[in-house]
Amino acid sequence: AAFLFALAAPPALAQDEYCNDYWFARNQLFDRAGYCFSSPLGKAIFDNTGCIGKNVTLEPGGAEFVAFIKRMEADLGCNVDTNATWLDLPNMGMRMRLEVVVALSEFASGCLGWRGAPIELRAGPRYGAEVMGVARPGDDLVWGYEAVHWPDGWSFISVHKDGQEIGMGWTDQYIPETMCTTTAG
User: Fold this and answer.
1) E-assigned strands of 115-163?
2) CB neighbourhood size of 67 (10 A)
3) How far apart are CA 27 and CA 145, in angstroms?
4) Which of the residues in the chain have pLDDT under 50?
5) 3-state class of 132 per DSSP?
6) Residue 157 and residue 119: Cα distance in Å, rounded?
7) Coil, strand or helix: which one is 138?
8) pTM of the entire structure?
């Protein structure tokens, strides 16, 4: 029941989670473009390895995605403490491995109690991408992220078990509602 509430909860109830997520996604785009961070938080999370400066060119679609994220941050009144050296974002390790930057969506839906075969989750929306994990029968599959690129035929899902996010990644597998114990969102 708590998981269903989390899917339906408006962003204001999870403001810190959303604000931290948006800060991370926005800055992950800049990090991948070679941006050199000067804030303690930026340096702690992205470490400036391979940075080239502050005037960088984002990947295709990156500027539009940053604009979306900034709108979401403004709507929530986000004010992440960039003087900190730690960000409360439990899935940061998984997010760093993704080939495509993602950010929490303001909307989510889910397949609760997956009853189908295991689903491989990939780091990117392509067949040769690293397999980051597997969604297994009984897991809850959630569509709750936006992405810079969203190729046709691919879905980005996060996997939850007992209310905890345990995996995420891209799949091209069709996930019919009939294979879910129930759906949400």
Assistant:
1) 119-122, 131-135, 140-147, 155-161
2) 11
3) 16
4) 1-13
5) strand
6) 10
7) coil
8) 0.90
Q: Is the dihedral of CA 101, 44, 158, 13 positive or negative?
A: negative
CB 24: neighbour CB atoms within 10 A? 26
| Nearby residues of 56 by Cβ (< 8 Å), 6 or more positions away | 30, 33, 34, 35
Cα(117)–Cα(179) distance, integer angstroms: 9
Question: Of 44, 12, 10, which Cα lies nearest the Cα of 27?
Answer: 44
Cβ–Cβ contacts within 10 Å for residue 104, how many?
Answer: 22
pLDDT for 117-154, tens place per residue?
999 999 999 999 999 999 999 999 999 999 988 899 99
**Residue entry with tokens 């969102």:** 185
Distance between CA atoms of residues 179 and 37, nearest Å: 45
d(CA 127, CA 171): 9
Q: Which of 31, 19, 38 minimizes the C-alpha distance to 58? A: 31
Amino acid in the structure at residue 77:
G
Helices 62-76 and 15-32: crossing angle, nearest 10°? Answer: 160
Q: Angle 158-10-136 (CA atoms, 0-180°, nearest 5)?
A: 20
Q: What is the number of alpha carbons within 13 Å of residue 41 lying toward its C-beta?
A: 15
State residue 185's pLDDT score: 80
From CA 16, how far away is CA 18, in angstroms rounded? 5
